[in-house]
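Protein 1 of 2
SEQ + STRUCT:
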Amino acid sequence: MRRYFEFASGTYVLAATFVATLAFLFLVFPNLPINGELLDLKPSYSYDEAMAALKEYGEDGRTVYAWASPTLDTLFPLVYVTLFAGLIYRFRLTEGLWFLAYLPVISGMFDLLENVQVTAMLISFPEISESQVAWASTATSVKTFLGPIYQLLGLGLLLIAGLRAAYAKFFGGGSGS
C-alpha cells in the first residue's frame, strides 16, 4: 500500500487528482438530471426519507442515478482518495505518520459500499427493505464522518508545509546567510 501512497504523493498525480476532484464536484455531479438531492450527499437517512427521495427522482432520475452510481461515483472515490492519501502521505510531519494516509482509503471503501447499496435500491425500487436502507445509510454516515477528518488533515499538512517553505525562503532557513 505504501507504493500506492508514494505514487499518490507525486506532484503530477496530486495536480491531476485535484483538478479531477473539482470537476466531479462542480461540473459532473451538480449537472446530473436526478430531480432531487443525491442520497450520497445526505449525512444519513431513514427508510422513509430514502423512499421519498427515490420516488422524487422519478423513473428517469432513478435510471440516470443507477447509471452514475456504479460508474461516475465509483471513479470519484478513486480520485479523491488518491488526492487526499497523497497529500497526507507527502506532507506528513514525521515518517511515522504515513499510516494516516489510510483515512481517505477507509472512507473511499465505505463510499464504494454505499454505491453498491444505493444502486441496488435504485434498481429494485419500490421493493426495498429497511435493512438495505440501513446498510446504505450506515455506509453514508461513516463516509460523511471520516470526510472532514482526512480533508482537514490533508489541507492542514499542506498549509504547514507551505508555511515552512515560506519561512525558509524569507528567513533563510538553512541558506547559510
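Protein 2 of 2
SEQ + STRUCT:
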Amino acid sequence: MATKVVVVGHQNPDNDSISSAVAYSYLGNELQARIKRADPSQATLEYQPVRLGPVPPESLWVLESNGFPLPKLISHVHARVSDVMTPDPISVKHTAPLLEAGRILRQKNLRSLVVTDDDGKYYGLISTRMIAERYIAATDVLEEDGSNTSAVVEDLCASLKQKVGDITETEVLILDKVGLLKEAIEDLMESSLREAVVLDDENRCIGIVTRSDVATRPRRKVVLVDHNETSQAARGIEEAEVLAIIDHHRIGDVSTASPIQFINLPVGSTATIVTMEFVKHDVEIPKTLAKVLLSAVLTDTVILKSPTTTQADKDQANYLASIAGVEIVEFGMEVFKHRSSGGELSVQKLVNTDAKEFQIGETMALIAQHETFDLAEIMQHEDEIREEMRRLKDSREYEFVLLMITDIGSEGSQFLCEGNRRIVNRVFSIHCTGVGGTWMPGILSRKKQVAARILGDTKG
C-alpha cells in the first residue's frame, strides 16, 4: 500500500496555493507511477492535495469547470490515529466457536481479533491472552483434586466449543480515526488492554491499534507549496516529515532533519515553478490541468502586470495557454471576474481570504489583498471593512492590519489600515488615515512592493 503524502499550501490559501497543491500532487503521482512501472517491487508514495482554509471563488470555478475535486480541508499535520491503525482488521462472529478464533489467531499470527454481532457490527475483542486465560482456568479443578486430570481434559474440550462471545472483552478503548495520535497513546497506555479499536459511524470496526503500533511515533509526510514559514504553515508542521518545498517567497524558518528538495525561485507564482517541473521531468500536462496552472500564474502576477512578473512567468504562461487553447488576457480576466464583487462577497471573506501574517519587530502584522475590477463598489463598504479589520487587530493583537484593494484595470491599490498607521505612513511617505484610505498607483504586489518594504524598514 502506498504511503500518503499531503501537499499543502499556506493558511488563508489563495489560488496559487490551491492550484499548485493540485498540480504538484498530479505530477508526484505521475512520477510515482513511472517508478512503479520500472520496478513493481518499489514502495511508492501517493500524493494528495489538501488545504488549510476556504477555497477562493476563482479556484472553485477553475477546479470545478475542469473536473478536479476540491482539495480536502485539514486543520493540522499532527500524526493521527489513522496513520498507525491496522485497517480492515480480521474479525470473527460472536457465535463462532472458540476453536475457530484460536485457529485464525494462530494462522494469521495475530494477537487479537475483532468480534462482530449478527449484523457485522462491532461487538468486542478477543485475544490470545483471553483464550489462554480460559484454558488456564480449566486447571483450577486440579487444586481440588490433583488426580482428576480427566475433568481438566473435559473442561478444555468443552472450551473449544464455547462461543467466542462468552469471553469477548467489550470494555475496549474506542479511538477516533482522525484523533491526535499523541492523545490516543496516553489513553492506550492507561487502558487495561493492549489494544484499541476504531469504529465508523455505523459502529463497524475499521481499524485496530496496539501498543506495538505506537511504540515508534510516525511523522506525516508533507510537501509545502507557496510558503516556507512556520507562521503560515499547518499546525503540527514541526512534527511532520517535510519531503519538499516549492516556493517563490523569501526563505523562512521551516527546518528539516535531513536534506530535501527545496526549490525557491524569484518568480511571480509557485505555479510557474510547478509547470517548469513538469517540463523538466517530461510529464505531459493535460488541457484541464493547464488551465488550473495558468489561472494561478495569472492571479499571482495580476495577468502578468505585477512587478513580480518575470520572463519565466511569461514563458510558462504562454506554454500553458497553448496547451489550454486560451488567450492569456481574456482567460485572466475571466478568472478574476469569478472573484465576487464587493456587493456579493462578505466583508469577512474580503479581508480574510488572502491575508498573510508578517513579523514586525516583536509583534505581528496582517497584510491582506483583494483584487477587483470595481474599486468603487468595494469602497462603498468601507465602514464594515474597517470594522472587520479592527476586530482582527484586537482579537489577534496585531500591530496593524493593512488591506490592499487592488484595482486590476487601473493598476494600483487602495490602502486601508487599522492599528499603528505610523509604520505604513513612514515606509510609503503617505498620510493614510481612518477614512477613505490612500490610492497607491502602480502598487500591485504585496510581496515585492509592500511586505518587503515594510519588513526592510522595521529591520533597519
